[in-house]
From TrEMBL:
Signal peptide stretch: none
Organism domain of life: Eukaryota
Biased amino acid composition, Low complexity: 9-25
GO terms of molecular function: aminoacyl-tRNA deacylase activity
PANTHER family given in the database record: CYTOPLASMIC PROTEIN
Matches recorded under SUPFAM superfamilies: YbaK/ProRS associated domain
Matching InterPro entries: YbaK/aa-tRNA-synt-asso_dom_sf (IPR036754), YbaK/aa-tRNA-synth-assoc-dom (IPR007214)
Species, as recorded: Apiotrichum porosum
Full protein name: YbaK/aminoacyl-tRNA synthetase-associated domain-containing protein
C-alpha cells in the first residue's frame, strides 16, 4: 500500500513538498530528466503517464529510504545500478534487497572476469543517462542502455522505480518494466 505522504501530482500539481530546502512538486515534475522519463513511458504506451510519477516528501538516495516513504517492502523497489563494461553503460535493475554478484554477472555476459564490470562514476552515469545517481530511472536515458532486470522483481505486483530525480518515483508491474526497458531477465545475486 502506498504511503499517504507521497504526493500525487494529479491532485496537488503545485503544492510544495515538505522540507525547507526541498523543491516544489512542480519543479520536480518539470525537471528535464523527469520529463524524459514521462516521455519514454508515454512512447512505450504506458497508461496514465500524466499521473504516474509521484513525488516523495524527502530525498530517497537508497532503496530502503524510498521503501520507507512509500510504505512498501524494500524488495519491491527497482534499484537502478549503472556499471561500465568496455566503455558502455549497463543498467542492472535489482530488487532493493539484492546485491549484484559481479562474478556471476560477468559469466552471464560472457566476460573473462568480474573486473570487466566496473561501478560507474557519477559523471559517466550522467553522460550516458542524463540522470544523476540516486534518481536513475529504468527509461528516459540520453542513449540506449542495455538493461538487465532482476527476476526477483517478478514477485511483486507493484514495483517502484526512480523517475529521473532523487524525489520522483513511479509504480510499474514487472512485465511492463521488462517491456519498456527491453530488459533481459536474470538472477543478479
Amino acid at each position: 500500500m502506498t504511503d499517504t505522504s507521497v504526493i500525487d501530482p494529479s491532485s496537488t500539481p503545485s503544492t510544495p513538498a515538505t522540507g525547507a530546502s526541498t523543491p516544489s512538486v512542480s519543479s520536480v515534475l518539470n525537471h528535464r530528466a523527469v520529463k524524459a522519463v514521462s516521455a519514454a513511458l508515454r512512447d512505450a504506451e504506458v497508461t496514465n503517464v500524466d499521473t504516474l510519477v509521484r513525488i516523495l516528501p524527502d530525498t530517497a538516495p537508497t532503496a530502503a529510504t524510498a521503501a520507507a516513504q512509500l510504505g512498501c517492502p524494500v524488495s519491491a523497489i527497482a534499484n537502478s545500478l549503472i556499471f561500465e563494461v568496455g566503455g558502455e553503460a549497463l543498467l542492472v535493475l535489482t530488487s532493493g534487497g539484492h546485491r549484484v554478484d559481479t562474478k556471476a554477472l560477468a559469466s552471464r555476459l560472457g566476460l573473462a572476469s568480474a573486473k570487466a564490470i566496473k561501478r560507474a562514476k557519477p559523471e559517466f552515469v550522467k553522460t550516458k543517462t542524463g540522470q544523476a545517481i540516486g534518481g536513475v530511472a529504468p527509461v528516459g536515458h540520453l542513449e540506449r542502455v542495455r538493461t538487465l532486470v532482476d527476476e526477483e522483481l517478478a514477485s511483486y505486483p507493484e514495483i517502484w522505480a526512480a523517475a529521473g530525480h532523487h524525489q520522483a518515483v513511479f509504480p510499474i508491474d514487472f512485465e511492463t518494466l521488462v517491456r519498456v526497458t527491453q530488459g533481459e531477465v536474470v538472477k543478479v545475486d
